[in-house]
Write a structure and sequence with these properties.
The protein contains 14 helices and four strands. It has 296 residues and is mainly α.
């Protein structure tokens, strides 16, 4: 009987945390310091765009998946195709307006590092730097098992932002999106070591360790422009971006950022905010569910 009660309690804590993380993400995506870190990375990418315009345009022309990624309505943060505006100019515009639309800037950053960067002559010059970061992020067995399974979803057209799986908590989230989130396409493999270790911490899961985070952290490393606190802010807004998108939990994102030196203790929300604990906004976030947060 006690074991059954413990399982029910654990399930309830996880569902509460899904709602908590969704609300936290919706707050952090508007945090100015977090946005400033996105702007700083965007400015470095803008320098490359403006230094190698012809080369980047040629890469875009030869890589049709760039267009698919940029404009697909199934992807959160996607751009809207405009008549008589080139994909190059669309990307540059999103990067230059990161302050107003950080989610679009993050999406473009992702497309850049995943689809474009390796084809630039610049990448051949900086191959050692990139390899150094690849080894930091992917050296462990973190991605050896993606710990996910495809599922069939009956939900159509309109989705609530965030990672809530329970209808009761989903109804409390006002923000909606037309894209289809990963939580509607995948679920965590309950036989995976990742799932078992995360369940032991009573943490939300969506679809395993975040490859998106790995790519964006790799970009931040290669751009080499963030200080310690900015790294933390960038990791937080990347995690928030993916939580709002319904793609990953904070744990699934932050555990990947941790490989690059970002501070995060598994199962401890407060550890993510070591540089912001004097902020009233962050204090309020943590106090919203202080019974779920493990204070040291």
């Amino acid at each position: 009987m006690q074991s059954r009660f413990d399982n029910v309690l654990k399930e309830l804590v996880i569902r509460h945390r899904e709602h908590f993380e969704t609300k936290m993400a919706l707050t952090l995506i508007e945090d100015q310091e977090c946005i400033n870190a996105v702007v700083k990375i965007s400015n470095k990418v803008i320098e490359i765009f403006e230094q190698y315009p012809a080369e980047i345009k040629e890469i875009i022309d030869k890589q049709p998946k760039v267009l698919t990624d940029l404009y697909s309505i199934d992807i959160y943060g996607h751009l809207t195709r405009k008549a008589n505006v080139s994909p190059y100019d669309d990307m540059l515009h999103a990067l230059k307006h990161a302050h107003e639309h950080p989610t679009q800037a993050l999406h473009v950053q992702m497309c850049f590092i995943y689809r474009i960067y390796d084809h630039l002559d610049l990448a051949k010059v900086n191959v050692a730097l990139k390899q150094e970061w690849v080894e930091k992020i992917y050296h462990s067995d973190l991605f050896s098992d993606r710990a996910r399974k495809e599922i069939s979803s009956t939900t159509k057209d309109c989705y609530k932002q965030g990672i809530c799986h329970l209808a009761f908590f989903n109804a409390k989230i006002a923000s909606v999106s037309s894209h289809k989130p990963a939580k509607e396409k995948f679920k965590v493999d309950e036989n995976s070591n990742f799932y078992k270790s995360t369940l032991a911490l009573s943490l939300p899961t969506v679809c395993g360790p975040s490859g998106h985070t790995g790519s964006l952290v790799l970009l931040a490393g290669v751009m080499n422009t963030l200080d310690k606190n900015e790294w933390q802010d960038y990791a937080l807004i990347v995690a928030s971006f993916l939580v709002i998108a319904g793609c990953h939990s904070f744990h699934e994102s932050m555990m990947v950022s941790k490989t690059a030196g970002v501070k995060y203790e598994y199962g401890d929300y407060q550890s993510m905010f070591f540089h912001k604990l004097q902020s009233p906004k962050i204090e309020e976030i943590l106090l919203q569910h202080n019974h779920l947060v493990r204070y040291k």
